[in-house]
Design a protein that fits this description.
Layout (H helix, E strand, L loop, with lengths): L14 H6 L10 E8 L5 E4 L2 E8 H14 L3 E6 L17 H12 L4 E6 L12 E3 L2 E3 H17 L4 E4 L6 H11 L8 E6 L6 H7 L19 H13 L3 E5 L5 H10 L4 E5 L1 H12 L5 H15 L3 E4 L2 H8 L1
Parallel strand pairs: 1-3, 1-4, 1-12, 4-5, 5-8, 9-10, 10-11, 11-12
Antiparallel strand pairs: 2-3, 6-7
Bound molecules: ligand PBG.
């Protein structure tokens, strides 16, 4: 036998061979595209720190939803920018709220695209926190009822799935009970289970105008150095009835994704967040990286780490690149 016996390069010789032995495959079917819906009509306002992403009025959001359906991605997740924000985040659980209105319009125009909604008060509150404020602190239990009410109004308006991202304790159970009691036991909950207090959300807060007006989110979102705690968060959400669990952000938390994949058998999602998008776009604009290869390589890494589902601002573009 000639030396060396094992030649790893044999299976790397041609694209056909590399495709044959590829361990991780990206598919548009496992991707969800986040969109920001705002008041008005014919609005398509580019987000400064997220070039290529927009605040969309309902009519424009309908067009994007049609595009998403055609591209074959799984679905879209909607974030709302209300006309007015208030102390209680009322627009979030109003039947006439911006997301509810968008859902009704989109549902009329697309048939089987999954319509997912983000459930959280921060885009709707004047103070920018994810729950009710009492005595200068975010109140957990009083917030739960409002989150559950938001989920119900979203589902009534046409949402196929709800995704709580607020990080209050007990929200999954509160939402599950509410939906079950109102006849929506068939609607799945995708929980942002291991959601870290991350600087990677910066551009999103510009997009949604949701930066906290005082303090920060560290008393409810997870501390970035913690990994075991993420597994506890996920376990609790599974126990409370979450159908899909999520790790967020993605690229800086691949270890968490991998550990969650090992420890749980439920479908696992990961959110490639606004800051991850902004960094790629900024470097690409400077001509410092090969943009398309980085987009594919990043999504592949998230999937390889163990995510079944990727929420990404690149969903539409990936669908194009992969076809
Ligand atoms: C709402 C929410 C946020 C994101 C998703 N849902 C912002 C935050 O928690 O501050 C971030 C998404 C992104 O950065 O792309 N709580």
């Amino acid at each position: 036998m000639s030396f060396p016996t094992h030649r790893m390069r044999r299976l790397r010789r041609t694209q056909r061979l590399r495709n044959l032995v590829r361990e991780t495959r990206l598919t548009p079917e496992s991707m969800i595209y986040p969109i920001f819906v705002c008041p008005g009509s014919n609005v398509r306002k580019e987000i400064g720190s997220m070039p290529g992403q927009y605040n969309l009025s309902v009519d424009q959001a309908v067009n994007v939803a049609r595009e998403a359906e055609k591209a074959g991605i799984a679905g879209i997740i909607l974030f709302g920018i209300p006309k007015e924000k208030d102390e209680l985040g009322s627009d979030c659980y109003s039947d006439d709220g911006i997301v509810q209105e968008a859902l009704r319009a989109i549902r009329e125009n697309v048939r089987d695209l999954l319509l997912v909604t983000d459930i959280c008060l921060c885009e709707y509150t004047s103070h920018g926190h994810c729950g009710l404020i009492r005595h200068g602190d975010v109140e957990n239990d009083a917030t739960l009822q409002l989150l559950a009410e938001s989920a119900l109004t979203h589902v009534r308006a046409g949402a196929d799935m709800v995704a709580p991202s607020d990080m209050m304790d007990g929200r999954v159970m509160a939402i599950r009970h509410k939906l079950d009691a109102e006849g929506f036991s068939g609607i799945p909950v995708m929980a942002y289970s291991a959601k870290y207090a991350s600087a990677f959300y910066g551009p999103f807060r510009e997009a949604a105008g949701s930066a906290p007006q005082f303090g920060d989110r560290r008393s409810y979102q997870m501390d970035p150095p913690n990994a075991r705690e993420a597994l506890r968060e996920i376990q609790l959400d599974v126990d409370e009835g979450a159908d899909i669990v999520m790790v967020k952000p993605a690229l800086a938390y691949l270890d968490i994704i991998a550990r969650a994949r090992e420890a749980f058998d439920v479908p696992l999602a990961a959110y490639q967040v606004s800051g991850e998008y902004a960094m790629i776009e900024a470097a690409a604009r400077n001509g410092w990286i090969d943009r398309e290869r980085i987009i594919i390589e990043s999504a592949t890494a998230i999937k390889r780490a163990g995510a079944d589902i990727i929420l990404t601002y690149y969903a539409l573009e990936l669908a194009r690149l992969l076809s």
